[in-house]
Amino acid sequence: MKRFLALKASAGSGKTFALTVRYITLLLLGARPKEILTLTFTNKAANEMSERIYNTLLNLGEDEAYLNEIAKQSNLTKEKILEKKEILVDMYTNATLSIFTIDKFINMILREFCGYIGISDDFEIKEDDSEALSIKFLESLSLEAFDKLVDFQIYEKKKYSSLFDIFQNLLEKNEDIETVNIDASLITLQKQTILDEAYKIKEFILNSPQASDAAKNAVDFNSFEELLAKGKTWLSKDSAAEFRTFKKCSNELLESFFTKVKSELKIYYKIRAGYSISRLFELFKLFKEYKLKYNISKNYLHFSDISNLTYELLSKKIDKEFLYFRLDSKFSHILIDEFQDTSLLQYKILQPLIEEILSAGGFKSFFYVGDTKQSIYRFRGGKRELFDYVLKSNPQVEVEILNTNYRSCENIVNFVNNSFNKLSSYEYYDQMSVHKSGFIEVLEDSALLEEEKYVNIAKKVSSLMQKGVNSNDIAILTYTNDDVLSIYSYLKKMFPSLKISTEMTSKLINQENVKALINMVKFLYFKEDLYKENVNAILGKEPSSSLEILIDIKRGTTQELLYKIANVLNITDENVIKLIELSNKYKNIVEFVYEIDKLEASIENSEQRGLQILTIFKSKGLEFHTVLLIDRIKQKNADRGSLLFEYDNVELKNIYYKISGLENYNEEYKKALEKERALAYEDELNILYVALTRAKKNMVVFKKEHKNSVFNLLDLNVQQIGEVVKSENKTINYEKSEKVIYKPLNLGVQEKPVSKEDDDKEYSLYSRYFGIATHYCLEMMNEFNEKSLNNAINLTKNRFSSFLKNSDFESIKKRVTKLLENGKFQDIVKNATFNKEQSLLYNGELKIIDLLAIKENSYYIFDYKTTKDELDEHQIQVKQYKKAIEEIEECKNVYTYIIYLKDEKAVLKEII
């Protein structure tokens, strides 16, 4: 095993596999779990890592790939490894693991040493209340400091909220520079000096017989600001003669005036830039000091505060030996995942630990893995340059490249290779594939620029489903959250019965009933009709419908009020119950009203939730059977940040306050801007790389017919490669039943009789589950015989045992058995090909056929029913199916049947 190793792991190349092998190899070579510091970037990744290691240990020997690689890394025989299996499982199970998110590890250090900076070790971690903090900061300022802040705002034309955002950005970066205090009056004097010199140019042009009207218009200024506006074109030139309208009247005198103005402007911008940055940092230091006091008084810290304070502790307050002693663990091995997302501040905190291991002898190791091509979090501090910086500054660290893709099919891998390896300035290594086939389609979608933007996306979803791709296997990737919600709304309108999930729809506060409850509370509190109309819309009521709720919002606890309102609105379900449980964190209804929109809790629904729509950023680390990648709908917002940070590798070189035109007079600033543009360009390429490497089997790219298409960066052309790969799983991917409403148990007075209406509701709920379970059983049958039925029944029991009794499953089996005994049905399905739960888009609606059999150029439609009654509406439904198949397949040989699955017999009724 190489003691010091960095892995450059492209997408799908087995990064987690490598980490797991490394960890188990260390255990085999004598390391204890507590000594192996393993750092990831999310709680989910940390949990998955610990579970992956445990499961691999538990099943060691069953997976040859793991066993072979562990044997190779440990230099032990397979027999020797398997001999130690039980010991390793026992040791890992009973050990205190050192597998953390990097934030949690830093937090752990701070809590251990927080007494050194006067913070209690029981501090909370939460977001800043920006409004309260900003107001309190203003109140804390002296009159002199307050005047400086106001002067700076006026001078820079900055709102206070924008200035507050700059302070927060500086806190996150935790960078500082030496500043020189500059008197603002010097700027005023310099402006006048420039204006006096510029008037000489103006006089010369106005008095020149060769000067055109355009030349005279170019010098039509009477103030410094007008000079900059009018001179925007000609002041950027190196000489007056370079400006076309000045060329005819140019001579040595004009050039001397021009050179003098440029020289004075250079001085102006130097003073101006120095003033802005020095005054900003003067105010920022006041804010930073106040914020720490404010946090201590409130006993909470923001995430950025934790990193800043920890770094200060390690760099100024304690040494690493004392750190080890107090942490009660001297880490001998460090494993870091997703290293390209490490921030500079995080690395500075980890650096003493890493350097101690690199410089020590004996059995110690350092291992990190990542992919600079997947570095898409620079805006959050991710510093991809760190990956190579650690290699260059520590020659003992070796590097290996993982270039075999275990995720995507061959056509997708080759497509990505061809798209990126032609970029000369982009570090890319061709990947090899292990899976054959795969489907790629790049299409130009003119609709993306029209009002009906998503019509072709809907058509493609329908087409893929008809070709055998299950909607649960489809992910739509977009650039922004706005796009996610827009596509979600459009597809829900087009496919009302299709399950669709998004990151936003999974938030508790966005669930329909919860949203209705929150808006009702806000209506009762604010008395504004907007909230009432929101409730009406969510509940499906007519606009302006009355909502009479006689509840005093000022009386009772928050939980009591929510419970009462939910009952009156009749919207109590499992998600509303969860909201009520979580509401105990709010002291009163006032705090609830103003803070509830920040609640991050997820909905109570853990089942597979169908087609997924998410941003590219959220898709990082995930993989999908089929991906639809959508072009950037709106043009990317320009960077409106006020500060420009320039680094040489990982060392801060300078911080500039952005000033329009400064690049024309400050060469260093110009180079810093160019460096930032290059990094932003690489960010865009990385986002595309992440997006194009999520698909395993099928990928469809929707490209705008426009010069602003983001795919122009890769010069993608319209193309189609391979055939659509069908899904292997055949789970139900749509909602066939009505929404099931949660009905809480009545635990009150026993004498209250159960109404007939309640009986009907309970029966209706049972009937729906029975019907869904029967359909599921039939869907799980690969063939229509007894063996397949027995397997399907077991699967059905596993899924629906919480809702149905054993007698219900016996009834389902009995009904399906009657169908298998039906001679006419068996004659039709014999030697036929089947499509179960066949979805098709017809007249803008999604239709689901229970069973579509194709035989001898004829189509047979079967619709299952578990109801006792044979209703006319059943016939209307299947006739629509028949019409759709006739038109889509252009075939008249379409036969339609309703199968009534009854206890005593299966009725096969043909609908003409």
Task: Map the helices and strands.
Layout: E1 4-9, H1 15-28, E2 36-40, H2 43-58, H3 64-74, H4 78-83, H5 85-94, E3 99-101, H6 102-113, E4 124-125, H7 130-140, H8 143-156, H9 160-173, H10 184-206, H11 213-218, H12 224-230, H13 252-298, E5 300-301, H14 303-317, H15 320-327, E6 333-336, H16 344-359, E7 365-370, H17 385-393, E8 398-402, E9 404-409, H18 410-420, E10 432-435, E11 439-444, H19 455-466, E12 474-478, H20 481-494, E13 500-502, H21 512-526, H22 529-539, H23 558-569, H24 574-582, H25 589-595, E14 611-615, H26 616-619, E15 624-630, E16 643-648, E17 651-657, H27 667-692, E18 695-703, E19 719-721, H28 756-780, H29 786-800, H30 806-820, H31 823-829, E20 833-842, E21 845-855, E22 858-865, H32 872-889, E23 894-901, E24 906-911
Parallel strand pairs: 1-7, 1-8, 2-3, 2-6, 4-5, 6-7, 9-10, 11-18, 12-14, 12-15, 13-14, 15-18, 22-23
Antiparallel strand pairs: 11-19, 16-17, 20-21, 21-22, 23-24
Note down, in words, how this protein is organized.
Its EC number is 5.6.2.4. It comes from Halarcobacter anaerophilus. This is DNA 3'-5' helicase. 32% of the residues are buried. A seven-stranded mixed β-sheet has the order 13-14-12-15-18-11-19, with helices on both faces. The chain has 912 residues and is of the alpha/beta class. The chain folds into five domains: 4-110 and 306-404, Rossmann fold (3-Layer(aba) Sandwich), CATH 3.40.50; 130-301; 436-504 and 609-721, P-loop containing nucleotide triphosphate hydrolases (Rossmann fold, 3-Layer(aba) Sandwich); 508-598, no CATH class; 756-911, Lambda Exonuclease, Chain A (Alpha-Beta Complex). The longest helix has 47 residues, at 252-298. Helix 18 links the parallel strand 9 and strand 10. The chain contains 32 helices and 24 strands. The radius of gyration is 34 Å and the shape is globular.
